[in-house]
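Supplementary Methods. Inverse-folding protocol.

Structures were first reduced to a discrete structure-token string of length 153. This string, shown here, constituted the complete conditioning input.
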């Protein structure tokens, strides 16, 4: 599986998320500051609510931009079977009845990428599974969830 394609697809998802949240934040802010949104009584809080929503969307857009920067700065290199896992590893885990692919990244945990008819789940070192993979080798086991490390790339 091609890690460069996985990273490119992940960056595309983040870029789309950033642009969407930025656009909606701007529209919401404009709506909240529109002359027709002015409060008609002390109980009319529509403008305030729209501005709070715009602030939240802007923070989420900023988080997507920061995640893009982290992913772009992460070195993409191959990992040998006898090399301890670290950020940027693409790993296949055997759970007994199924195998799954995971990509260890500094952010974007839970994001799913479809490539070559397979689904790759992004995990971070802070996640329970990600923390178990750091420093492990092909053939090692994880405990929760119980899985065997089949291969890396």
């Amino acid at each position: 599986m091609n890690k460069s394609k996985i990273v490119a697809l992940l960056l595309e998802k983040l870029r789309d998320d950033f642009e969407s949240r930025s656009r909606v934040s701007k529209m919401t802010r404009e709506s909240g500051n529109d002359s027709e949104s002015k409060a008609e009584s002390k109980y009319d809080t529509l403008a305030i609510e729209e501005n709070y929503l715009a602030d939240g969307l802007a923070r989420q857009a900023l988080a997507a931009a920061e995640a893009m920067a982290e992913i772009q700065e992460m070195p993409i290199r191959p990992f040998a079977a006898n090399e301890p896992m670290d950020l940027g590893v693409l790993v296949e885990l055997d759970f007994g009845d199924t195998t799954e692919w995971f990509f260890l990244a500094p952010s974007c945990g839970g994001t799913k990428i479809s490539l070559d008819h397979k689904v790759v789940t992004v995990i971070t070192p802070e996640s329970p599974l990600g923390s178990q993979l750091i420093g492990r080798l092909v053939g090692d086991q994880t405990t929760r969830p119980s899985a065997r490390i089949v291969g890396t790339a």
